[in-house]
Amino acid sequence: MARKDEVIVGLDVGTTKVAAAVGEVKEDGTVDIVGVGMSPSHGIKKGVVVNVADTIDAIRRAVHEAELMAGCTVNAVYVGVSGAHLRSFNNRGVANVQGGEVTEEDVDRVIENARAVQIPADRAILHTVPQEFLVDDNDGFKDPIGINGNRLQVGVHIITALNSGVQNVVQCAERAGLHVLRTYSELLASSVAVLEQDEKELGVVLVDIGGGTTDVAVYHDGAIVHSAVLPVGGDHITHDIAVGLRTPRTEAERVKLKYGCAISTHVGEEEDIDVACVGGREPTSRKRTLLCDIIEPRVEEIFRLVEREIVQSNFADVLGSGVVVTGGSALLPSIAEVGEEVLNLPVRLGRPRPTGGLYELVKAPSYSTAVGLVQLGAQDIEAARRPATARRKKPRAENPEGAGRLLTTLGGWLKDAFK
Questions:
Q1: Distance CA 79, CA 61 (A)
Q2: Are 30 and 2 in contact (CB under 8 A)?
Q3: pLDDT tens digits, 166-200
Q4: Nearest one of 45, 18, 13, 351 to 186, comparing CA atoms
Q5: DSSP β-bridge partners for residue 129
Q6: By CB neighbour count within 10 A (0-12 exposed, 13-18 middle, 19+ buried), where does 203 fall?
Q7: Structural domains of the chain, count
Q8: Domain encompassing residue 179
Q9: Beta strands in 26-122 (DSSP E)
Q10: 161/177 Cα distance (integer angstroms)
Q11: Of 34, 80, 177, 195, whose CB neighbour count within 10 A is largest?
């Protein structure tokens, strides 16, 4: 087994499922996935905890399954945060360079200036993600340390969250017996898992369709420039099926996964499916095209909302890599074709990039966030192994006030967790 400080666990607490992934970081920085677990979730609605007991139970079951597979005990996790309460915006900061050459302290100071914005008292900054640095009048710097100049500027993407929204997820994990090392926005975690660097450089949109929400992130020139969480997802499709076919939600989810298609004309008109009825009545036979006629407009609606976010980003004309769709609902047949028709952009299915170990078990889009959280943790460990003067800046995870034992800086929690 690897040393304790090389074991990383990502915990995706979603609306319809809780997924856990256990990874081991090798000396060369590569990650092996050694255990996974997944449990149905009934305590989350649109990314927000609505039933504490159910959420704790789902976390325990998912983590226990991952522990059995990995052959280890999980004590600490990286937790993903989503929900319609997340908000984001871009901002800029300016600072004078002390000493004529940009240092890590100068970078820290200019980022602090960029995040010095007023936000409502019930919200706090979850992430401050640097986009681009300018030294004097020269732009295009991703890492300006060592550059000579007098004036340093930075553009950042700031993601905020409700304190209570983050705190409730953290407390559920803690009551399940876990220590939360850090929280990350799920859209950032999924981006790390499924997007290629050249896609980010050319311009790409990540669309992570979860159970209760859809996360949207727009990248250009290698940096995130716009993000949003839409309050619709695969669970809304399931609801429409339940109403349209007059069947329980559990049955609606089953037929969606087994027989669903995002384009009704792609299924045979003569295909019949048996659907359970409410109240214990005998199952009835329905046309499969009827099921798909219910699914198709909801999928189109989700992509129309994504289109609106793309337009608001002001980068609609420079998305050379198109769109990457991931998340549990991304496996719905023909969903990429609907996306291409609505968005007029190429669309591909986003799966976690190959890792070592049990990659075959986590290559499904439903594991994108959990795997991405493991990879973010691996980046933290890799940064800790390098001398302080050689460390590059990575997206910051801030600490919302009152959000449990969230730790504010990389150095702080690394000293506690790995001393």
A1: 16
A2: no
A3: 999 999 999 999 999 999 999 999 999 999 999 99
A4: 13
A5: 157
A6: buried
A7: 3
A8: 1-85+161-196+353-419
A9: 31-40, 44-45, 48-49, 76-81, 87-96
A10: 24
A11: 80
Q: How far apart are CA 233 and CA 328, in angstroms?
A: 10
CA dist 12 and 188 (Å) reads 12
Same domain, 57 and 27: yes
User: Which value, to the nearest 10 degrees, does the dihedral of the CA atoms of residues 219, 224, 225, 226 take?
Assistant: 90
Q: 95 with 59, same domain?
A: no
Over residues 238-291, the pLDDT tens digits come to: 999 999 999 999 999 999 999 999 999 999 888 999 999 888 788 899 999 999
One domain for residues 250 and 128: no
Which two tokens mark 413? 């929690």
For 350-380, the pLDDT digits (tens) are 999 887 788 888 889 999 999 999 999 988 8
- CATH at residue 377: 3.30.420.40
Cα(325)–Cα(350) distance, rounded to whole angstroms? 5
pTM, full prediction:
0.88
Place of tokens 């997340």: 86
- Helix, strand, coil % (nearest 5) of the chain? 40, 30, 30
CA atoms within 13 A on the CB side of 269: 1
Question: Quick check: 277 and 187 in contact, CB under 8 A?
Answer: no
Pair 31, 63 in one domain: yes
